[in-house]
Design goal:
single chain, alpha/beta, Rossmann fold, seven-stranded parallel beta sheet, six-stranded parallel beta sheet, 13 strands
């Protein structure tokens, strides 16, 4: 089986997902080519032949120069449009590679409807295409994005989603035929914490879960400027309105009032925030009297730094207004950290209420505050939830099974082509 992956970012959660799936398929014997950005953060991991994945960094050839030119416009639509243009200009090189290698299937990893450009080009070149919709409905620019998504789903030979709720959305909102959709769960992010012991019982489990005596937890907190006795809530990933950071800041005002040792750590790139939105969040934290207890790391978090944030945290907050799923949740599970998440998208399928965390109604800051306090004030429950989260990462979200299901899907497409 020859597979070409197309992943346009080169860094971040979708990149990590694609890397894990590509390498898992390669271990099963597939010939995998990964087309991605020139600045690919996992290039060293794919160096040589050990991974079995052929890396083809094509997109954004002029990215470094463009960043210098458009640095003053980093958080504006101008920079985003330039990025889209850079992507489109890279598409002919992708098609040349496709014609040269002739993969059985091209698999596009998406959360951006601009991938429609590449999908149509692949279809015109006679290829078969799978599209994984990491966000089924657009979370911004809804009008145009929804129209482009409709054509993505129409032209793809199969559409992969990560939960039953997204399958239902595709059918109801986009009239995608059910036999065209496959639910394949999101794999774990254990590769971020590959040195940790598997969750078991007794002392080993406590160490893996980052109890107060865990040296990795202590060292991570020292590096991040957090105290040993702090009760740490982590908000991680790209900052965007739909993720509800403003709701979390409001809820944290209540949490801190009841638990003065509570700390909120916000770590992520604000690229997707509207102008002035970050300043408004900081201002609101001052109005609530919690500014000194909120740590802001508003930049992209390099991979080497990611473990510190999760090892330092007591729990991870996902107060999203809407979502399909979240790689951040899988990061939390990989580091044996319980979560408090909104009851949106696939979260009810991923979070075991009272087992790996708590679910709250979206937009309900009082319920969010209560759930965070409940978790932060109960060491035993927090440790138990964390162990269950890690077990889920090791079993239910194992990449070997994800790759097997994906390979079966490819087989269906190849069989159809031969018929």
């Amino acid at each position: 089986m020859k597979v070409m992956f197309v992943e346009i970012y080169g860094r971040g959660g979708l990149t990590h997902y694609t890397y894990n799936l590509a390498t898992a398929l390669a271990r099963r014997g597939a010939e995998v080519t990964l087309v991605t950005a020139r600045e690919y953060e996992l290039a060293d991991a794919l160096a040589g032949s050990a991974s079995g994945v052929r890396l083809e960094p094509i997109f954004y050839a002029g990215s470094a120069r463009a960043r210098r030119w458009f640095a003053p416009f980093r958080n504006t639509r101008i920079r985003r449009q330039v990025k889209k243009l850079e992507y489109v200009l890279g598409t002919p090189a992708v098609i040349r590679l496709f014609r040269r290698t002739r993969p059985d299937v091209a698999h596009l990893q998406g959360s951006n409807p601009i991938l429609l450009v590449t999908l149509i080009a692949i279809k015109l070149a006679g290829g078969k295409a799978v599209y994984t919709a990491h966000d089924v409905s657009p979370l911004a620019n809804r009008g145009l994005s929804r129209l482009l998504d409709r054509y993505l789903y129409r032209f793809a030979d199969r559409v992969v989603v990560h939960g039953d709720i997204d399958r239902a959305r595709l059918v109801a909102r986009y009239a995608v035929p059910e036999d065209k959709i496959r639910v394949i769960r999101h794999g774990n992010y254990l590769f971020f914490d590959s040195d940790a012991q598997s969750i078991g019982e007794g002392p080993a489990a406590a160490r893996t879960n980052g109890g107060a005596g865990d040296p990795a937890r202590r060292q991570a907190r020292e590096r991040l400027g957090l105290g040993r006795e702090d009760a740490v809530v982590l908000f991680f990933g790209f900052l965007s309105w739909y993720k509800g950071l403003d709701l979390l800041v409001e809820a944290f005002g209540q949490v801190h009032g009841a638990m003065p040792r509570a700390r909120l750590v916000v770590a992520g790139d604000p690229l997707k925030l509207r102008p002035g939105e970050l300043d408004a969040l900081r201002s609101r934290s001052r109005e609530l009297g919690v500014a000194e207890s909120v740590s802001w790391r508003t930049d992209y978090i390099p991979m080497d730094d990611v473990p510190d944030y999760f090892r330092a945290a007591d729990c991870v907050a996902l107060p999203y207004r809407e979502a399909s799923q979240s790689g951040v949740l899988h990061l939390a599970y990989a580091f044996a950290r319980p979560v408090v998440a909104s009851r949106v998208g696939a979260f009810p399928e991923l979070v075991e209420e009272g087992g790996t965390g708590y679910l709250v109604p979206p937009g309900d800051t009082d319920a969010l505050a209560r759930a965070l306090l409940r978790l932060l004030s109960d060491d035993e429950a927090r440790d138990r939830f964390g162990r269950e989260a890690r077990r889920a990462a090791e079993s239910a979200y194992d990449w070997t099974e994800v790759a097997a299901e994906t390979e079966q899907l490819y087989g269906e497409i190849v069989t159809e082509r031969a018929a």
